[in-house]
Amino acid sequence: MSLRQTIKRHYKIISLLRLRPMSYEDVQDEMADDPCSVEEKLLTSQRTFQRDLEDIESIHNIVIKCNRSTNKYYINEDVEETHSQRLRENFDLLNAIRLSKSFGNQLIFEERKPLGTHHLAGLLHASQNFLEVKFEYHKFWDTSISNRRVKPIALKEARNRWYLIAEDTKDDIIKNFSLDRIKNLEITKDKFKPIEYQAYEEFKDSFGIINGTNEEPLKVILSFTPREGRYVESLPLHHSQQLILSNEEEIRFSYFIRPTYDFRMEILSYGDQIKVIEPESLKSEIKKELKSCLGNYE
């Protein structure tokens, strides 16, 4: 059995048990109903299934137990790291794309421009090996093009885009560069000393890619309509999101976050489906933005 089959079988088992507890027979039945699993020959003996559960715990840090009274397996402890989860999701997506070529036009993607992800491997190599990089940068807000030479620190995803966090050699300021605006990337042989900058810590209380502003993180409470609140509960706005109230009239969440421009724009994007409860300062900012928006129609 190939390594590819084993990895795919692990991912399939994880996905199924995240839906609900299942017996060995339930898992095999679900795989038998999945054309991709059948094509890949993922159905196995119970002995192999038990070995898979041990490997999943060892490799993915996901502990799967069996309820002996029902003989059904369930995920007891799930501490899968974010990057592992994303790898698994991308693996599922790639297999869906491959499957769609055989089953017609049932997989529909949102049309958008390339995200510059072809730069990821090179920039990751440069940041890990402390190599300066050069590129042309095409700004969002105008048509200007600038030549940049930077010291790459980290790569960050925000709002379906990837960004390079790097120190600009021109002024020694740490800046963010959207990968889809980078052209003619060149990894130089010029080494630089490691930069004391903890990217995760810098961004953990921020929304999106904006940081380094004067806003301090604070407690924010947002109230959503029940319909929108259920959506936000399933896809949190920020990792600090906590449910604090849920009834037939509203769903409230609390956040510990910097109220930066892009967070305010996110709030405004929900229209009349959201209300800022606190703090008063953020409520005032949103009111000001709404009045300015209405002014465009006078």
UniProtKB/TrEMBL annotation:
Residues 119-187 form the WYL domain. InterPro entries: CBASS_pafABC_assoc_protein, WCX_dom, WYL_dom. Residues 217-292 form the WCX domain. This is Uncharacterized protein.
